[in-house]
Automatic annotation (TrEMBL):
Residues annotated as domain Peptidase S26: 27-117, 124-162
Keyword Acyltransferase (UniProt): no
Record keyword Membrane present: yes
Family: Belongs to the peptidase S26 family. IMP1 subfamily.
Protein name: Peptidase S26 domain-containing protein
UniProt GO BP: protein processing involved in protein targeting to mitochondrion; signal peptide processing
Source species of the chain: Apatococcus lobatus
Keywords from the UniProt entry: Hydrolase, Membrane, Mitochondrion, Mitochondrion inner membrane
GO molecular function: serine-type endopeptidase activity
Main location: mitochondrion
PANTHER family xref list: MITOCHONDRIAL INNER MEMBRANE PROTEASE SUBUNIT 1, PROTEASE FAMILY S26 MITOCHONDRIAL INNER MEMBRANE PROTEASE-RELATED
Length: 185
């Protein structure tokens, strides 16, 4: 029997069977699909989802052409973000975009900021309810040095696993880069 006759036979079977003959109620199938879709939505919205980090601002941590990461939302929801974590936040410059940056200061911290282009040194105090975000590539990153502290409510997730490229897959390290200094005030 060739594949065309099998396909015709399958179509005929589906047209002439009813729920009693197959034991399948189509409303159950639809219900299960809706439940599965709802579960996927809940996981992606509130627990974790795949995200791509593209651009030069996080070099050498991430590739400028894009790394596939898993971001989790629970750390943001339960306010467990710490200095050194890589986070995703709504861009202050363009709210339609999500940026990937490292947290260099939490509320109450004094962050020593050196502008990558000019090398000027200044101390910034992070106000209550805000974080200081900065790219690892200080020479080519638009971050809190340009738009100031970011409200905590603009954080959407924390990067915790790098999936692609496979040869670099693993946990995303939470660290304070050597160029950064911060103190509690």
């Amino acid at each position: 029997m060739n594949w065309t006759s099998r396909l015709v036979g399958l179509g005929s079977f589906l047209r002439h069977t009813n729920a009693q003959e197959t034991g399948i109620a189509w409303r159950d199938v639809v219900f299960n699909i809706l439940v599965a879709g709802g579960c996927v939505h809940l996981v992606r919205e509130y627990i974790a989802e795949p995200t791509k980090c593209i651009g030069p601002s996080m070099l050498p941590t991430f590739n400028p052409r894009g790394d596939l990461l898993i971001q989790e939302h629970l750390s943001v929801t339960f306010r467990q973000i710490r200095v050194g974590d890589v986070v995703f936040a709504v861009s202050k410059n363009d709210p339609r975009h999500i940026v990937c940056k490292r947290v260099l200061g939490m509320e109450g911290d004094a962050v020593e900021v050196r502008d990558g282009r000019q090398g000027a040194l200044k101390i910034e105090k992070v106000p209550e309810g805000h974080v200081w975000l900065q790219g690892d590539n200080t020479i080519n990153s638009t971050d809190s040095r340009h738009y100031g502290p970011v409200p905590y409510a603009m954080l959407v997730g924390k990067a915790f696993i790098k999936v692609l490229p496979l040869n670099q897959a693993g946990w995303v390290e939470s660290k304070i880069p050597s160029y950064a200094k911060h103190d509690k005030i």
